[in-house]
Write a structure and sequence with these properties.
By secondary structure, the protein is an alpha/beta fold. The protein has a domain of 182 residues: P-loop containing nucleotide triphosphate hydrolases (Rossmann fold), CATH 3.40.50. Strands 6-7-8-3-9-10 form a six-stranded mixed sheet, with helices on both faces. A four-stranded antiparallel sheet has the order 2-1-4-5, with helices on one face. It binds adenosine-5'-triphosphate (ATP). It holds the Pfam family ABC_tran.
């Protein structure tokens, strides 16, 4: 279980530049929750992901995963619990290394003791099986340098590297936003399949409203560092994009301003 208690984060506190990134956030996620997160520009979505992943500390409050305070764990421990896929396809992989070397590193990161990331034949067989399910032929290119892959292929590999060791928490940070529509659709479909099949507790930040409604079992809407809407599966089912935008305006008192918003 992932739990945020009273999480508050300010940037430049006490100065004219003070920014409230998160204010008093209480959230509990059940195992297997697939939560989509939307919000206006500067609403605090990235800060929320940074704090859950432990790379940023809250000023007040704490994040617990399976009862462990995430801020107190060293990075190698955190990487066993939490996996993240970023918007930039270049961010999650090592371009000069091959597909199998990248997968091997991702695999060894989650092991208690490091046995090195050498590629053995049994690992290679396992990697091939995992790659096969992506359905884009990467299983035939284990020795290819990752820097030569297209953005979509790289993002599919990043998604696989983040998930194949079954993290407790998966953070998807606008992970389809930098891709062309066809590739974005492919990664979205793979994400949905993998998350549901592996029952991964997942938070996915997206600017695509239709996707935010269609995917997952819970939708969170943020504005000015606060959660202003938390919509469960039952209410999400029949929701339309215009109803969601209307709800946002009613509660926040202003229109959703997001320069990257995709309505559907
Ligand atoms: N390192 C920083 N220094 C100062 N202010 C920051 C910093 N990072 C974020 N902020 C501010 O904190 C607030 C929340 O930012 P955050 O990046 O979390 O929002 P976001 O919802 O991810 O926005 P967007 O959708 O525009 O990327 C914003 O007002 C932002 O300007």
């Amino acid at each position: 279980m992932l739990q945020l208690s009273k999480v508050t984060k300010l940037f430049n506190p006490g100065t004219p530049d003070e920014k409230v990134a998160l204010m008093d956030i209480d959230l509990t996620f059940k195992p297997g929750d697939f939560v989509t997160v939307i919000g206006s520009n500067g609403a605090g979505k990235s800060t929320l992901m940074n704090i859950i992943s432990g790379v940023m500390k809250p000023d007040i409050g704490e994040v617990r995963i399976q009862g462990n305070a995430i801020q107190k764990l060293p990075e190698h421990e955190r990487s066993r619990w939490i996996a993240r896929v970023f918007q930039d396809p270049m961010a999650g992989t090592a371009p000069r290394m091959t597909i199998e070397e990248n997968l091997s590193i991702a695999y060894s990161r989650t092991k208690k003791r490091s046995f090195g990331w050498g590629v053995t034949s049994s690992k290679r067989k396992m990697f091939r099986e995992h790659l096969q399910r992506l359905g884009i032929g990467l299983e035939h290119r284990l020795g290819a340098k990752v820097g030569l892959l297209s953005g979509g292929e790289r993002q599919a590999l990043s998604l696989l590297m983040a998930t194949f060791t079954k993290p407790d928490i998966l953070l998807l940070d606008e992970h389809t936003a930098a891709l062309d529509p066809a590739r974005a659709d492919l990664i979205t479909k793979l994400t949905d399949e993998i998350v549901r099949e592996m029952k991964l507790t997942t938070l996915m930040v997206t600017h695509n409203m239709e996707q935010a409604i269609r995917l997952g079992n819970r939708l969170i809407m943020m504005d000015k560092g606060r959660i202003i809407l938390d919509i469960p599966q039952e209410r999400k089912k029949g929701l339309t994009v215009s109803q969601l935008l209307g709800e946002f305006e009613r509660i926040s008192g202003h229109q959703l301003s997001d320069d990257r918003i995709v309505l559907g």
